Amino acid sequence: MALEEGKDSGVTFRINPSRAFPLRLLQFSLVFLALGLGFSVFSMYTTRYFKIQNVVPIAQTILEQTPIKPCFEEPISLESWIRPPSKLMHTMNDSELLWRASLVPRIKSYPFKRVPKIAFMFLTKGPLPMAPLWERFFKGNEGRYSIYIHSMPSYDPDFPPSSVFYKRQIPSQVAEWGRMSMCEAERRLLANALLDISNEWFILLSEACIPLNNFSIVYRYISRSRYSFMGSFDEPGPYGRGRYNGNMAPVVNLTDWRKGSQWFEINRVLAVKIVEDTTYYPKFEEFCRPACYVDEHYFQTMLSIETPHLLANRSLTYVDWSRGGAHPATFGKGDTDKDFFKKITEGKTCLYNNQPTTLCFLFARKFAPSALEPLLELASDVLGF
Ligand SMILES: *[C@@H]1O[C@H](CO)[C@@H](O)[C@H](O)[C@H]1NC(C)=O
Ligand SMILES: *[C@@H]1O[C@H](CO)[C@@H](O)[C@H](O)[C@H]1NC(C)=O
Ligand SMILES: *[C@@H]1O[C@H](CO)[C@@H](O)[C@H](O)[C@H]1NC(C)=O
Ligand SMILES: *[C@@H]1O[C@H](CO)[C@@H](O)[C@H](O)[C@H]1NC(C)=O
Question: Does the C-beta of 380 come closer than 6 Å to ligand 4?
Answer without folding.
Answer: no
